[in-house]
Amino acid sequence: MTSEYLVLRIRTETLMNRLRFALIMAGGRGTRFWPVSRAHYPKQLLKIISRKSLIRETADRVLPLVGRSNTFVVTVRDHAGAVRRELAVIPKTNYIAEPCGRNTAPCIGLAALELLKMNSNAVMMVVPADHWIADVKTFRQTLKAGMALAAEREVAVTIGIRPNYPETGYGYIVKGKPLPKLNGTFAYRVRGFKEKPVLRDAVRLLRSGSLWNSGIFIWKVRTILDLLHEFNAPIYDSLHRISRALNQASLGKPSAALRRVVEREYKVMPNISVDHAVMEQAAAAGRVVTLEGNFGWSDVGSWAALHQLLPRDSRNNAGVGQWLSVDSQDCLVYSPQRLAVLLGLREAVVIDTPDALLVGDLKRSQDLRAVVAELEKKGYNHLT
Q1: Looking at 280, 298, 316, which one is the last position of a domain?
Q2: What is the pLDDT, as a whole number, of residue 2?
Q3: Final residue belonging to a domain, choices 245, 277, 298
Q4: Per-residue pLDDT tens over the stretch 367-382
Q5: Mean pLDDT, residues 5-16
Q6: What is the DSSP letter of 276?
Q7: Euclidean distance between CA atoms 33 and 42, whole angstroms
Q8: Range of the domain at 354
Q9: Can you give the chain as a three-state secondary structure string?
C-alpha cells in the first residue's frame, strides 16, 4: 500500500466525517410509561434498562460515528433543559428546541435546514432517542453502510429490522428488488409501508420477508428537503419561510426574530410523521431503500416491551428495584423505593412511584395513553 494511497484514504475519510451528522429525536412524551414518565420527565430520560437513560444510551451509540460537534438533538422547548443536562457532552448550540411537538416530519425538516446551512452536502442519520439496541457494533456497521449509500444516491434510506415474531404494534417495510450487499448488509428497494397490522396480516408480512420499521432514517439533507417539497407542500412552505430567517442566526442559538418565525410556522404545520408525509409516496416513486438490520432492536414502546428486555426469573417475572414474587407468573414490577410483593398474580404490571400506583393487565400496557387522557379529564393533570 503506497503512501500516496494512504494520504488519499485519510483525506477522503476526513471529508466524509465532516459530511456526516446525527440527529437524535427526543420530542416524545412517552405516556405509555406512566406513572414513571410524566409531561415534565419524558420516557427518553428514564433509566429502566441500565444505569444510563435511554437517550444517553442512544448518544453513546452514535457519537463514535459522527463525533460530538456533528451530533444534534431536537426536542420540545419544555424538555430542552433536562435533555441538555442529561447529554452535557453535546455542545449547547447543537440543541434544536421546537415550540411544541408536531410529530417527526416537522422536526426532521427543521433540523435539515440547520445542517444544510452548515454543509450543503451533509448526510443526516435520524435516530429516535428511546430505543434499545443489543449489538452496538453491528448497529454502527449498518448505519455506516447506510450513510455511504445515502451519500452516493438521491434516495431515502431506512433501517428495517428482521422480525422474529408477528408483532402488531410495529409498522412494516415491504421489501422490493434486492440490491448488492453493502459491507455485508442486505439492501432492498422498498415497495411500500404497512402500518400496525392485525395479527393475521402481521403473520402474512412476516412470512413474506417484510421488515419491522425501526424509525431510523438516513439521507442527504437536500434529499429530504426535496422530498418534502415534492410530497408535502404545507411543511415545505413553512420550512422555506423559516429558512429565510436563518440567515442571521442558528436554531441552536436563535434570535428573537427567528424564534417568532419558528413559533408562527409550527402553529400551521401539519402534525404528521415523516412516514406519512414523504416515505410512503417516495417508496411508490422508487426512491426509498432499506437496509436489513440484525442487531437486536426494540422501540421500548410499553411496559410489556420492557418485560421482554429485562432478565426474568423461572416463572417469567421481571422487575426493576425491590420486588418479590410468590406464586406469580409473567409479571412486570417497577418499585425502586420500597419492596413490592406479588402474590398469585398472572400477567400483571405493578408500577410504584411516590405519588401514583399502577396495577393492571400487562397485555394492556399499550392502553396507558387512554389512562393519561382520563386522568387529565378528571382533573389529575398534576400527575400526568
Answers
A1: 298
A2: 58
A3: 298
A4: 999 999 999 999 999 9
A5: 47
A6: I
A7: 9
A8: 303-383
A9: CCHHHHHHHHHHHHHHHHHEEEEEECCCCCHHHCCCCECCECHHHCCCCCCCCHHHHHHHHHHHHHCCCCEEEEEEHHHHHHHHHHCCCCCHHHEEEECCCCCHHHHHHHHHHHHHHHCCCCEEEEEECCCEECCHHHHHHHHHHHHHHHHHCCCEEEEEECCCCCCCCCCEEEEEEEEEEECCEEEEEEEEEECCCCHHHHHHHHHCCCEEEEEEEEEEHHHHHHHHHHHCHHHHHHHHHHHHHHHHCECCECCHHHHHHHHHHHHHCCCCCHHHHHHHHHHHCCCEEEEEECCCEECCCCHHHHHHHCCCCCCCCEEEEEEEEECCECCEEEEEEEEEEEECCECEEEEECCCCEEEEEHHHHHHHHHHHHHHHHCCCHHHC
pTM (whole model) above 0.90? yes
CA distance 164 to 181: 22
Dump pLDDT digits (tens) for 172-182. 999 999 998 88
**What's at 111, amino acid-wise?**
A
Question: Are both 140 and 279 inside the same structural domain?
Answer: yes
Same domain flag for 291 and 307: no
Position 143 scores a pLDDT of: 97
Residues 205 and 318 in one domain: no
Same domain assignment for residues 49 and 153: yes
Mean pLDDT of 337-354: 98
Q: What digits encode the pLDDT tens for the residues 184-231?
A: 789 999 999 999 999 999 999 999 999 999 999 999 999 999 999 999
